[in-house]
Amino acid sequence: MPKTCEPNTGREIAWDGGSGRPRPPAGCHLDYCLIWVYHFLRLALACIFIYAGVIKLLGPRAFAHAIAQYDLVPEGLLPLMATMLPALELLAGLGLILEVRGSLTAITALLCMFLAALGYAIRENLNIDCGCFTAADLEGLDSIKTAFRRDLWMIGATLFLYWRRRSRPPQSHWINRLILMLKREVNP
For the chain, which residues make up each domain, given as ranges? Predict the structure, then answer.
Protein backbone atom coordinates (compact mmCIF):
# COMPACT_ATOMS: atom_id res chain seq x y z
CA MET A 1 0.00 0.00 0.00
CA PRO A 2 1.59 3.35 -0.97
CA LYS A 3 2.25 5.90 1.72
CA THR A 4 1.30 9.48 0.99
CA CYS A 5 0.74 12.63 3.00
CA GLU A 6 -2.39 14.69 2.95
CA PRO A 7 -1.48 18.16 1.67
CA ASN A 8 -0.56 20.70 4.34
CA THR A 9 -1.30 18.39 7.28
CA GLY A 10 1.47 15.83 7.22
CA ARG A 11 -0.97 13.05 8.13
CA GLU A 12 -0.48 9.70 6.55
CA ILE A 13 -3.23 8.26 4.42
CA ALA A 14 -2.08 4.63 4.39
CA TRP A 15 -1.16 2.40 7.36
CA ASP A 16 2.14 0.60 7.66
CA GLY A 17 1.25 -3.04 7.07
CA GLY A 18 3.60 -4.81 9.50
CA SER A 19 3.42 -2.95 12.80
CA GLY A 20 -0.16 -1.75 12.77
CA ARG A 21 0.96 1.78 13.61
CA PRO A 22 0.63 4.68 11.21
CA ARG A 23 3.97 5.91 9.93
CA PRO A 24 4.39 9.04 7.93
CA PRO A 25 6.43 8.85 4.76
CA ALA A 26 9.91 10.36 4.85
CA GLY A 27 8.79 13.70 3.40
CA CYS A 28 6.23 14.23 6.16
CA HIS A 29 8.64 14.35 9.12
CA LEU A 30 9.64 17.91 8.31
CA ASP A 31 5.98 18.89 8.11
CA TYR A 32 5.34 17.35 11.55
CA CYS A 33 8.29 19.28 13.01
CA LEU A 34 7.11 22.53 11.43
CA ILE A 35 3.64 22.04 12.91
CA TRP A 36 5.13 21.61 16.39
CA VAL A 37 7.45 24.61 15.95
CA TYR A 38 4.51 26.69 14.71
CA HIS A 39 2.38 25.89 17.77
CA PHE A 40 5.28 26.32 20.19
CA LEU A 41 6.18 29.76 18.82
CA ARG A 42 2.54 30.85 18.65
CA LEU A 43 1.91 29.89 22.27
CA ALA A 44 5.25 31.29 23.47
CA LEU A 45 4.61 34.67 21.84
CA ALA A 46 1.07 34.71 23.19
CA CYS A 47 2.23 33.93 26.73
CA ILE A 48 4.93 36.63 26.59
CA PHE A 49 2.39 39.24 25.50
CA ILE A 50 -0.21 38.13 28.03
CA TYR A 51 2.35 38.22 30.84
CA ALA A 52 3.67 41.64 29.80
CA GLY A 53 0.15 43.04 29.51
CA VAL A 54 -0.96 41.75 32.90
CA ILE A 55 2.18 42.98 34.67
CA LYS A 56 1.77 46.46 33.19
CA LEU A 57 -1.96 46.58 33.92
CA LEU A 58 -1.24 45.76 37.58
CA GLY A 59 1.12 48.73 37.85
CA PRO A 60 0.04 51.40 35.36
CA ARG A 61 1.87 54.21 37.19
CA ALA A 62 5.21 52.41 36.95
CA PHE A 63 4.60 51.74 33.26
CA ALA A 64 3.59 55.39 32.68
CA HIS A 65 6.89 56.40 34.33
CA ALA A 66 8.79 54.04 31.99
CA ILE A 67 7.02 55.52 28.96
CA ALA A 68 7.75 59.07 30.17
CA GLN A 69 11.49 58.31 30.26
CA TYR A 70 11.51 57.93 26.47
CA ASP A 71 10.06 61.47 26.13
CA LEU A 72 8.10 60.41 23.03
CA VAL A 73 4.53 60.72 24.37
CA PRO A 74 2.97 63.98 25.57
CA GLU A 75 2.46 64.01 29.33
CA GLY A 76 -1.33 64.27 29.02
CA LEU A 77 -1.48 60.99 27.08
CA LEU A 78 0.68 58.97 29.49
CA PRO A 79 -2.21 57.59 31.59
CA LEU A 80 -4.09 56.57 28.45
CA MET A 81 -1.00 54.92 26.93
CA ALA A 82 -0.17 53.20 30.24
CA THR A 83 -3.54 51.42 30.21
CA MET A 84 -4.34 51.02 26.51
CA LEU A 85 -1.00 49.57 25.42
CA PRO A 86 -0.97 46.75 28.02
CA ALA A 87 -4.64 46.00 27.32
CA LEU A 88 -3.80 45.68 23.63
CA GLU A 89 -0.88 43.37 24.47
CA LEU A 90 -3.16 41.21 26.60
CA LEU A 91 -5.89 41.01 23.96
CA ALA A 92 -3.43 40.29 21.16
CA GLY A 93 -1.85 37.49 23.20
CA LEU A 94 -5.24 35.95 23.97
CA GLY A 95 -6.19 36.30 20.31
CA LEU A 96 -3.02 34.51 19.25
CA ILE A 97 -3.79 31.60 21.56
CA LEU A 98 -7.29 31.32 20.10
CA GLU A 99 -6.00 32.02 16.57
CA VAL A 100 -8.24 35.06 16.15
CA ARG A 101 -7.72 36.72 12.80
CA GLY A 102 -5.63 39.90 13.13
CA SER A 103 -3.97 39.01 16.42
CA LEU A 104 -0.64 38.12 14.79
CA THR A 105 -0.78 41.39 12.87
CA ALA A 106 -1.43 43.28 16.12
CA ILE A 107 1.54 41.58 17.79
CA THR A 108 3.76 42.34 14.80
CA ALA A 109 2.68 46.00 14.83
CA LEU A 110 3.35 46.24 18.58
CA LEU A 111 6.79 44.68 18.14
CA CYS A 112 7.64 47.14 15.34
CA MET A 113 6.56 50.03 17.57
CA PHE A 114 8.63 48.65 20.46
CA LEU A 115 11.66 48.23 18.18
CA ALA A 116 11.34 51.83 16.99
CA ALA A 117 11.19 53.13 20.59
CA LEU A 118 14.08 50.93 21.71
CA GLY A 119 16.13 51.93 18.66
CA TYR A 120 15.52 55.58 19.52
CA ALA A 121 16.66 54.94 23.11
CA ILE A 122 19.83 53.20 21.90
CA ARG A 123 20.59 55.96 19.40
CA GLU A 124 20.10 58.66 22.04
CA ASN A 125 22.14 56.60 24.54
CA LEU A 126 19.34 56.78 27.11
CA ASN A 127 20.14 55.01 30.36
CA ILE A 128 16.55 54.04 31.26
CA ASP A 129 14.42 51.02 32.02
CA CYS A 130 13.01 49.54 28.83
CA GLY A 131 9.51 49.22 30.33
CA CYS A 132 9.06 45.78 28.81
CA PHE A 133 8.00 43.88 31.92
CA THR A 134 8.96 45.28 35.31
CA ALA A 135 11.47 47.90 36.38
CA ALA A 136 13.47 45.27 38.24
CA ASP A 137 13.97 42.85 35.34
CA LEU A 138 16.90 44.61 33.64
CA GLU A 139 18.98 47.73 34.26
CA GLY A 140 19.80 50.74 32.10
CA LEU A 141 21.25 50.71 28.61
CA ASP A 142 21.93 46.96 28.78
CA SER A 143 18.19 46.57 29.35
CA ILE A 144 17.43 48.53 26.17
CA LYS A 145 19.89 46.56 24.04
CA THR A 146 18.73 43.23 25.46
CA ALA A 147 15.09 44.15 24.85
CA PHE A 148 15.94 45.24 21.30
CA ARG A 149 17.59 41.88 20.55
CA ARG A 150 14.69 40.00 22.18
CA ASP A 151 12.18 41.91 20.07
CA LEU A 152 14.17 41.12 16.92
CA TRP A 153 13.92 37.41 17.80
CA MET A 154 10.18 37.80 18.32
CA ILE A 155 9.85 39.53 14.93
CA GLY A 156 11.62 36.51 13.44
CA ALA A 157 9.09 34.25 15.18
CA THR A 158 6.19 36.27 13.75
CA LEU A 159 7.69 35.96 10.26
CA PHE A 160 7.85 32.19 10.70
CA LEU A 161 4.22 32.17 11.88
CA TYR A 162 3.13 34.19 8.84
CA TRP A 163 5.03 31.84 6.52
CA ARG A 164 3.64 28.74 8.20
CA ARG A 165 0.06 30.00 8.14
CA ARG A 166 0.25 30.20 4.37
CA SER A 167 1.18 26.53 4.14
CA ARG A 168 -1.27 25.03 6.64
CA PRO A 169 -5.05 24.58 6.90
CA PRO A 170 -7.29 27.53 7.80
CA GLN A 171 -6.85 29.10 11.24
CA SER A 172 -9.91 27.48 12.73
CA HIS A 173 -8.92 23.95 11.65
CA TRP A 174 -7.90 22.82 15.15
CA ILE A 175 -11.04 24.35 16.68
CA ASN A 176 -13.26 22.53 14.18
CA ARG A 177 -11.40 19.27 14.87
CA LEU A 178 -11.84 19.77 18.63
CA ILE A 179 -15.57 20.33 18.19
CA LEU A 180 -15.85 17.17 16.12
CA MET A 181 -13.88 15.22 18.74
CA LEU A 182 -16.17 16.51 21.48
CA LYS A 183 -19.16 15.37 19.47
CA ARG A 184 -17.37 12.00 19.13
CA GLU A 185 -17.59 12.15 15.37
CA VAL A 186 -13.82 11.80 14.92
CA ASN A 187 -11.34 9.64 16.81
CA PRO A 188 -8.33 11.56 18.20
Answer: 28-166
